[in-house]
Write a structure and sequence with these properties.
- This protein is an all-alpha fold.
- It has helices at about 10-25, 35-50, 75-110, 115-130, 140-155, 165-175, 180-195, 200-220, 225-235, 255-265, 275-290, 295-305, 305-315, 325-350, 365-375, 385-395, 410-420, 430-435, 445-455; strands spanning about 380, 440.
- The protein contains 19 helices and two strands.
- A two-stranded parallel sheet has the order 1-2.
- The longest helix is centred in the first third of the chain and has 39 residues, at about 75-110.
- The radius of gyration is 24 Å and the shape is globular.
Length: about 450
């Protein structure tokens, strides 16, 4: 472990950041690749303009007087401010910079354990390629960052419990940017159970205090205690079950995540007493959760990395050693990587001026503005995945049927009606008459759009 201390120096960490940042930018998805990104920006603008959180929705004709439980308001305000001063290109670069920062923290987290250079690099690369599909302009990115920070602080609390007492302060930030703060509570619970099993009475008392502090920190948000039922209502809404990210992990759609899970199964050594119990439990809990839901599989990639790296150490022959570069060589290497990253950014900024926001052919601002101009009073039934873009590009003028906010703003019956129309259930016409729907805004590759094309 001491031989790897060079790899934990700032210059190396900066080199690690440059490598993954360059790789992510080259293979990056557009800024509005995820359907929720546009409405998050629009919400941030709305909050800043009004000076407070909106209690009810003004962007749809279906939400009515249902309370808008805005969980991610902090994230929305931050990206709105960044967009104001740096524009969408700056927001695009910072988004993938945040993804690279998450991987730097994963690197540091692995180095806190007794691992080899091979194990470090292999586990880190698996985490990097597993995380990539979910890197984008979304509040989940803050959860990825903070869950790794929580993990690092909890591990370091074995030597100094003061690290763990910083978690309630971080929880105050987390609860105001994304509902993923529940992952932090899971980590604390795992370390608390480990302390109980080891009969470490002093640590048990500390974790009871820390858990209480985090529980109180959850209440420090505009929604108060209502944030918990709001999260549950959103997760349990009917429309969530139809979204790919909430369905069980598909090896064909996310092969690299599946590969990381497969590697863990191959190298796992649950009986290795040198590996902390908490690391084992963390890896296996998120393995099960990741298989059950694609959304949680990305947490698996970044949280299971320390366990995978430790397991790999047992597979290496004792006579194999990897040369760790000298500090001077690492400086030269890092400098070269940084120049490569800056060069790649310059090239991409010139050749992708029209594609860094969305893919060619996607609905864009000119299309939405033309719809607003030509059909100002029409009630459209829109695809869930384009609702956010309709809101953002129209400035809220084009009222939507539904968008990515799902159960945090729309009543259950509205989401149920959406599913009935979108999947052409028997009562489809009843729903159309109920809302006086006069038109449809659908991506051309949807089944419902194909159905309408047959009647042209």
């Amino acid at each position: 472990m001491n031989d790897l201390r060079t790899l934990n120096q700032p210059v190396v960490l900066f080199g690690v950041f440059a490598v993954i940042f360059c790789g992510y930018i080259i293979a990056a998805n557009p800024l509005f690749f995820f359907p929720d990104s546009p409405w998050h920006l629009a919400a941030g603008d709305l909050i800043r303009a009004s000076g407070g959180l909106p209690a009810y929705d003004a962007w749809s004709y279906t939400a009515g007087e249902t309370r808008w439980f805005h969980q991610s308001w902090g994230f929305d305000v931050i990206i709105s401010i960044i967009r104001q001063y740096l524009g969408l290109p700056g927001l695009y670069i910072l988004t993938y910079g945040l993804g690279a920062l998450v991987l730097v923290l994963v690197w540091k987290n692995i180095l806190l354990r007794d691992v080899t250079a091979r194990g470090l690099i292999a586990a880190w690369l698996l985490a990097a390629i597993a995380l990539f599909p979910r890197v984008g302009l979304k509040p989940d990115m803050i959860s990825y960052l903070l869950v790794v920070v929580f993990y690092i602080f909890l591990h370091r609390s074995r030597e100094n419990i003061k690290y763990a007492y910083a978690l309630p302060l971080l929880m105050v930030i987390w609860v105001n940017v994304h509902g993923g703060f529940l992952a932090g509570l899971i980590l604390i619970t795992i370390y608390f159970i480990e302390a109980i099993l080891k009969k470490e009475n002093q640590r048990i008392r500390h974790f009871m205090m820390i858990g209480l502090g985090c529980g109180l920190a959850i209440l420090v948000n505009p929604l108060g205690i209502h944030i918990l039922p709001a999260i549950l209502a959103n997760v349990n809404s009917q429309i969530i079950a139809q979204l790919g990210e909430w369905k069980p992990l598909s090896a064909s759609q996310f092969p690299f995540v599946f590969m990381a899970m497969f590697v863990m199964v191959l190298v796992t050594n649950i009986r290795n007493h040198k590996i902390p119990l908490a690391d084992k439990v963390v890896a296996y809990i998120w393995l099960v959760m990741g298989i059950d839901s694609t959304r949680f599989s990305m947490y698996f990639g970044i949280l299971a990395a320390p366990y995978i790296a430790q397991c790999m150490k047992d597979l290496e022959p004792d006579n194999i050693r990897i040369h760790v570069p000298t500090q001077q060589a690492i400086k030269w290497l890092s400098g070269g990587v940084i120049l490569l990253g800056l060069s790649a950014l310059l090239i991409i900024s010139r050749v992708q001026q029209s594609t860094y926001i969305h893919f060619p052919g996607d609905i864009d601002e000119p299309i939405v503005q033309s719809i607003v101009k030509e059909f100002p009073d029409i009630r459209f039934f829109n695809d869930y995945n384009i609702g956010g873009k309709l809101i953002y590009y129209s400035g809220g003028k084009l009222k939507v049927f539904v968008d990515g906010r799902a159960g945090t703003v729309y009543p259950p019956d509205v989401l149920s009606d959406y599913v009935n129309v979108f999947f052409m259930q028997p009562d489809m016409m009843d729903v159309i008459r109920k809302y006086n729907i006069e038109g449809f805004l659908l991506p051309p590759d949807t089944f419902l759009a194909s159905f309408f094309r047959t009647f042209r």
